[in-house]
Recover the amino acids of this structure.
């Protein structure tokens, strides 16, 4: 009988060892699966972060381009204003006697009427 109990205990121990080995293998498989899943998630996160950085860089470049265009437009506007002021000053300096004879002489108050019309033409000119 004692011998039988020893054999039963050995069999139970072997079964328990098999179950432990089986459970350890399952845990190892689950750990590998979790590690692979974590790696996939980290890769996805890395791709999203890269996309975010690219989108931010694109936004920053667009903003810089917009600011540059605004600055260039403002500078061109100042240049055109200075040019118009120079033309207006030149128009005020020109007297009717300096106009070529082919141009019609203004009626009314001399060079002031002519300069007024010329100034209106300059003011109406597209930028």
């Amino acid at each position: 009988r004692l011998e039988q109990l020893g054999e039963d205990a050995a069999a139970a121990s072997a079964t328990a060892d098999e179950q432990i080995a089986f459970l350890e293998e399952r845990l190892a498989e689950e750990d590998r699966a979790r590690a692979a899943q974590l790696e996939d998630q980290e890769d996805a996160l890395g791709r999203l972060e890269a996309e975010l950085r690219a989108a931010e860089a694109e936004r920053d470049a667009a903003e810089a381009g917009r600011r540059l265009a605004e600055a260039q437009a403002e500078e061109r506007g100042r240049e055109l204003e200075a040019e118009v002021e120079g033309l207006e000053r030149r128009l005020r300096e020109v007297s009717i006697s300096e106009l070529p004879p082919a141009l019609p002489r203004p009626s009314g108050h001399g060079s002031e009427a002519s300069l007024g019309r010329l100034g209106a033409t300059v003011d109406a000119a597209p930028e």
User: Anything to note?
Assistant: The two ends are 115 Å apart (CA to CA). The CA atoms of residues 14 and 20 lie 10 Å apart.
